[in-house]
Amino acid sequence: METKKLFYKSKKDIKTAATILKDGGIVAIPTETVYGLAASAFNEDAIKAVFTAKGRPQDNPLIVHISAFRQIKQIAASFPKSAKKCAKKFWPGPLTIILPKKDSLNTTVTAGLDSVAIRMPSDKTARKIISKSCPLAAPSANLSGSPSPTSAQHVIDDLSGKIDAIVVGEDCKVGVESTVISLLGEHPTLLRPGGVTVGMLKKVLPDLVIDPAVENELKTDQKVLSPGLKYKHYSPKTQVILVEASSKDFVDFLNLKTGESVAALCFSEEKANVKIPAISYGSESDDSEKAKELFLKLREIDSLGVQTVFAHAPKKEGIGLAVYNRLIRAAAFKVIKL
Ligand code: TXA
Ligand code: MG
Question: Is the shortest distance between the CB of 36 and ligand 1 below 6 Å?
Fold first, then answer.
């Protein structure tokens, strides 16, 4: 199929995107986190087409994106006080809330679960498209397993010819996917860190707990709260190894490896001192910059043509925890601590 290119600033193109979605098509749209591959949340065939285009495992549920609070009752069976508090504080924005699913919502969206993930994006284009169509089920618009798309070009590289249209917008401002919390259990639980940080959430949800899978590999017998946590993710073709170290130790470690088929994903301050090929992904002191750059740089890694890339781990604080969470998955949990 030919993938139609639409432009976010054109009113006509936004209308076209909404029409394609209402008619059961699938359209990549910009959001503030990463580009999403959208389908009507109420159209089972369209949702199946999203799974097919991405090559996504059938048991990994999608997030439903809304543009107005009144849409919640079409999707969730209840909206508890804790959810209201979070929504008031963080919506529209990069927070996804897991709630009991409404019976009438088809289980293709939720991959058979009786819960549903909901988020109201802050990106104006995304909200316009939703308000002109309907709530949209949308995973990240990448091929399953590869780094999430933070620019329209990444979507074109991965999905051109497999989807009806792409709305070409600006590069994504946050750069990592939304924070995911579950409000189903006894305590609110962080399942995926993102732009809404643990510190911000704890002001509203003081008893928030962090699911162990955020920082660690799941044991095979462990209960999976979020199916997405099981899969290898965000990986370039090159092997990635995460390195937890001070800048000095990281640079010394790399400089013993000249002549090997290796490269570095480093902080910008380190680049000049590294004697092997290196790509920097942001300043040591700026975790928001690292979040914004990470997926772009993971995509660039393959162009270096080396066997292994050593990635300098950020501190697991603020949005740095989200960057760490994505990098450890890109590294398939291979970590060196110096
Ligand atoms: O920022 C984002 O969240 C982006 C943009 C497009 O909005 N979307 C995104 O979707 O990252 P995706 O499908 O790549 O990641 C959704 C995550 C997965 O890890 C999935 O397992 C989890 O949310 N999830 C969805 N529904 C769930 C549910 N009912 N229970 C537990 N986890 C759920
Ligand atoms: Mg994804």
Answer: yes
Ligand 2: centre distance to CA 177 (Å):
8
Give yes or no for residue 116 CB within 6 A of ligand 1.
yes
Last residue of a domain, one of 162, 180, 214: 214
Number of domains in the chain: 2
Do 27 and 128 lie in one domain? The reply is yes
User: Which pLDDT tens digit goes with each residue over 14-48?
Assistant: 999 999 999 999 999 999 999 999 999 999 999 99
| 8 Å CB contact between 241 and 311 | yes
CA 246/CA 240 separation, integer angstroms? 18
Same domain, 330 and 193: no
* The two three-digit tokens of residue 114, written as one number: 């009786």
Choosing from 66, 99, 140 the residue with most ligand 1 atoms within 8 A of its CB, the one to mutate for a pocket test is: 140
**Residue 115 CA, closest ligand 1 atom number:** 29
Q: Which domain holds residue 330?
A: 239-337
226 C-beta closer than 6 A to ligand 1: yes
pTM above 0.90, yes or no: yes
333 sits in the region (left: phi over 0; alpha: psi -120 to 50; else beta) called left
